[in-house]
Design brief:
12 helices; 308 residues; eight-stranded parallel beta barrel; metal ion binding; alpha/beta
């Protein structure tokens, strides 16, 4: 049976508390959701932090410090820290937690892009917290900045820690940017490419796009140099990552990427999404990779060499 790495992105920095009561906000909620997702079969837990009082995204390492040790103590999952943070954070804030805790792996967005969720704002009449409406409505003017200089700065700042990267590619051009940094000698195989589909401003969730992205990555990097995974936003999540698994890819679920478990049905937890994709993978003849197997596949340094 083929082993598939299941990543679970627990809370993210895009969705807001009004959109789902299941979205974890406090350090305690993030820890419990992470532990449950790991028990359900997620080998990698991808983490952002939020201000516990109102759920606003934060890059403050002190907030991360309230849940990271708990997750490490109670699971063997690979802890993956964001360097994306949120669309409104400067790059220095976005990488602060990764710099402090030196995780086994952290996300790294491979290009700038429009990143929008503003159509949702018109569908919500009452918000739990004052910050939410403007944060979502103003995303029609957000540019998620990841310039060549920004990316190089992240490599320079996080270099020497042994941390590897989940290279998030939201469009074809991001693969070419990744190839540029490989040519500069800043990325060594095996590396991990997370192809992202269905974000308004990024590549659409169509099978033809997935096939072309994968073929382009093979041409640029060579099939043996990298592992690839797919995440899809919103309603595309489960059907699209199932298509990716059929093509030999790894998969990512979680409330960062979609708040739903089925058509019109909000998910009750991150673990519910992990359990669903695990059932689908079993029907396809696959089984979830363990954290140890994920570490081996991705060439990670091990949890004992982090500062969590």
């Amino acid at each position: 049976m083929a082993k598939v790495i299941i990543s679970c992105a627990i809370t993210g920095g895009i969705h807001t508390p009004t959109m789902s009561d299941a979205l974890p906000i406090t350090p305690e909620q993030i820890a419990e959701e992470s532990i449950a997702a790991a028990k359900a079969g997620a080998a990698i837990i991808h983490l952002h932090a939020r201000r516990p009082e109102d759920g606003h995204p934060t890059g403050d390492p002190d907030v991360f410090a309230r849940f990271l040790p708990v997750i490490k103590q109670r699971t063997d999952a690979v802890i993956n820290l964001t360097t994306g943070g949120s669309l409104t954070m400067p790059v220095q804030e976005r990488i602060a937690a990764a710099h402090r805790f030196q995780p086994e792996i952290c996300s790294l967005n491979m290009g700038s892009m429009n990143f929008a969720l503003f159509p949702v704002a018109g569908k919500i009449t009452e918000w739990k917290y004052p910050w939410e409406k403007d944060y979502i409505a103003n995303s029609d003017d957000y540019v998620f900045r990841n310039s060549f200089r920004d990316i190089a700065y992240m490599f320079e700042t996080l270099g020497g820690m042994g941390t590897k990267y989940e290279h998030e590619c939201y469009d074809l051009s991001h693969l070419y940017t990744l190839a540029h940094f490989i040519d500069r000698g800043l990325i060594k195989p095996p590396f991990f490419v997370q192809m992202v589909f269905g974000i308004l401003g990024g590549v659409g969730a169509h099978l033809e796009n997935l096939v072309f992205m994968k073929e382009t990555a093979d041409r640029l990097f060579g099939k043996e140099s990298y592992k690839w995974s797919v995440l899809a936003a919103g309603r595309h999540q489960m059907p699209f990552i199932t298509q990716a698994a059929l093509l030999g890819g790894h998969v990512r679920v979680g409330l960062e990427d979609s708040l739903y478990i089925g058509r019109g049905e909000l998910a009750t937890s991150n673990a519910q999404q992990v359990e669903k994709i695990k059932r689908i993978l079993a029907e396809l003849g696959h089984e979830p990779a363990t954290p140890a197997e994920a570490r081996e596949m991705l060439g990670l340094k091990g949890a004992d060499r982090t500062l969590i």
